[in-house]
């Protein structure tokens, strides 16, 4: 018999992701959203991603942002309104580049924008800028906050007290400050990390000064503990703190949430004090499209929401777009894990 050889054409269809939520803002790239309700209105303080001529590297040089825009929303379902440039790197005397994830706070009719940037020695510090309006423009203090370093400030108001949380390892440089001084043993973002079986590097917290412009006390390291009370170890990349600190309070418990960086989760711990310790509980938000995962959690009326980002619009890790979805707490205080990619 005659053997027939049929040539098979295999059509490989590229898997397209289906996302839980649509982009919230699409006319500019936005990331790292810090959302707040001030006087009944929702405000978002994100990073403003831009195309950069700087090449991608392990320290995140391609995240070369230079200004901030603030957005407002009348209700959780309305379109965010872009209020334009709220602060530009050229108006911050000490800052050279990389205006990374910001946050904001309101006190006595004034608004404070907290932001990280690299100084002229390429060392990250935290800056503060002040405005009479939640949408800016903000006027920067001439110097960084005294004794500040690393990235990702987040401010949490508890009654009359305001706490600032911060830190990020690798490109965020937190590992370089383990001794209290800037360690420059090498140029790699992986130098100066603890050994895998040592406690992971801690995020930082300090109460803010009454004028909101400086640390009001000696900063403390935050402990993130395992269920058995032992510290999460540096080698435990699935659970250790990487960057993107955020705190919210629910039923009198303090929730500390953060990105695990190279394992791309938003994880959380629960504690009885804004200083911690926080006992690790699990994952709030699974990996999004793109390397970074960075969020904020805010209550609007009776419901809670998580603001986050992915790269649905650009497909580029440093050109991100904001998203938002509801977040739910269970009766036992745990948070239901959110899957941002449906398939
Ligand atoms: O957006 C720049 C940096 O990437 C942020 O500061 C980090 O949290 C990460 O999202």
Automatic annotation (TrEMBL):
Keywords: Carbohydrate metabolism, Glycosidase, Hydrolase, Polysaccharide degradation, Xylan degradation. Pfam families: Glyco_hydro_43. InterPro entries: Glyco_hydro_43 (IPR006710), Glyco_hydro_beta-prop_sf (IPR023296), Glycosyl_Hydrlase_43_Enz (IPR052176). PROSITE patterns: PROKAR_LIPOPROTEIN. Belongs to the glycosyl hydrolase 43 family. This is Alpha-N-arabinofuranosidase.
